[in-house]
Amino acid sequence: MGFERDFESIRDSTRSEEARERIVNDRQTSSAAAKLSKLPAASERGLSTVVLALATVSFFIFSTLLYIRPYIWAYSTSPYKTIHDSHHHAARMLLKDEFIGEDFFSRWKWETFDDPTHGRTNYVDQEIAKKNNLSYASDTKFVMRADSFSTVPQDARGRDSVRISSYDAYADSVIVLDLAHMPEGCGTWPAFWTLSHKGPWPNGGEIDIVEGVNLNQANLASLHTTPSCTMPQNRDQTGFSTSTNCDSSVNYNQGCGASFAKPASYGNPFNAQGGGWFVMARTPEDGIRIWFWSRNDPNVPPEICDSDSQDGPSDLTPSPSWGRPEASFPLGDNCDYDSHFDAHSMVFDLTFCGDWAGSAYPNSGCGGNCVDFVNNNNEAFSEAYWEINSLRVYTPA
């Protein structure tokens, strides 16, 4: 019996030990399971922290790039250190002068000197232009044209045409031309441009706003200056840089130019669309910029197309809503504004052949000889005329 009690005692003790071991094991298993169950939550919290950190860093990098983008662009496109946002310095401009209809007879000078570009042209005065119906005006229109009725004798100075310039001159300004029709056709060389009122040319500079020859369909905007004025090849514009040295004494006075990319900016396509608007803005800070919108362009700014009414806007400021200009000429170390550009008069002219239209004529698709064509084909010049709705000039407030 004592042995049996001892045996029972030992067995009970063994069972107690086994029970304690099972309890300990169960607790350890439960603790491990609990820890494992917490792992996904911890992982999710860690992942969220990483995502937030990445988003913060990305936002910082993006903001920094936005801030330094103009500086990166300037360094990548030009060796010069003058840097500016094309609209940052945009000044408010107030309407200074407007020219509609008869204003071109009373407030512009009619020039009759020999064509300085050696064209086959006879510039006539206002009296002859009116008498021969080469120029006329209404309350809303002004027209000046080439003679399309007569052949030109060999000993004549050239085909009758018109050249006029404004009596007033403007420095910093925005010029808005609402043009219904420009001269077109073989042998023609029309231009709307500005040049130094003080001169003599090329002192004070020249800005060609509308220009082309023969059967061209893309407008060319250019600068012509004294030496030490150049442009970067890549500029903040939608047009294409055609040349970069503005010095009139090199490259046969090619100047620094930009050919427009928008369709219908010149010649027959321009006229077929009913014309359009050219805008030139010039300031020391933003340089010289030229925009163009065809008559049916849905993106023409309201303040520009509204100017075709008799009462144009009283103030005008170049805006980012205008989009990038067709031609941009940044000024600074590459071309000092004050020493190359002063107050300019505006000029409309129409010449024939000459230095550019004549030299380009053989490859223009027109055929024959330029001077012979101008002399003997009077009917070919029926579309060689300017029709101006309005011209407005805004100067700093």
TrEMBL record:
Keyword entries, A-Z: Membrane, Transmembrane, Transmembrane helix
Segments forming a coiled coil: none
Segments crossing the lipid bilayer: 46-68
* Gene3D superfamilies noted in UniProt: 2.60.120.200
Residue segments, region Disordered:
1-24, 302-323
Residues forming the GH16 domain are: 71-365
Taxonomy, superkingdom: Eukaryota
Compositional bias, Polar residues, is annotated for 310-320
Q: Which PANTHER family match?
A: GLYCOSIDASE C21B10.07-RELATED, GLYCOSYL HYDROLASE-RELATED
Q: What is this protein called?
A: GH16 domain-containing protein
Organism field: Somion occarium
